[in-house]
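Hi, here's the filled form for the chain we discussed.

Project: internal
Contact: R.S.
Residues: 197
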Amino acid sequence: MVVDPRRYQWVVGAVGLLVLIAFSAYLFANGHTGAPGVPPGARLREFVAPLATSDLDAPANVRPRCDPRYPARQGLNVCDRRPIVLAFFALGARPCERAVSALETVSRAFRGIQFAALAISAGRVATARLARARDWTIPVAYDLTGAIGQLYDVSVCPLLELASAGGVVQQRLIGEGWERPVRLAAAVRRLAVAAGD
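And the returned structure, exactly as it came back:
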């Protein structure tokens, strides 16, 4: 008996559609709405990651005991409750690295805001080498195991989170275009106005 494959195309299509709906429902139920990072109105997820300029070769702590009175001396402490602009980047991804350079430039104009960058799934030596080569003076940390990348669902770069005092995200900047200092400065200015700077 010969089976005509066109006869069952609708069955295959229906099964595929059901799988897509089930997967989407699973992602939505588990807090994945399709966009990476923390959405505006939500709080930043706390972590402490070692600075590339430190002598620590260690994974980040995604469950820190946060006390802003005792900042991590050799780490990027996202427990701090000042306004922050936090950039996630990947080593070797040129648009991401340019966004961090833009962040470095913009940081000079806004003194009341913390600026920092985090290299996802990167080691200390390579991250420090890049920071020195680009003359970055903002805190640059590294996420050795990718745990913070998972915590923030970083699936695209550049990804920048702009949060007010208390860690509430005001803006989430995703994708290319944020490597231009003028454009990035306009977004940071809105954060500074909201923070009263």
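Let me know if anything looks off before we file it.
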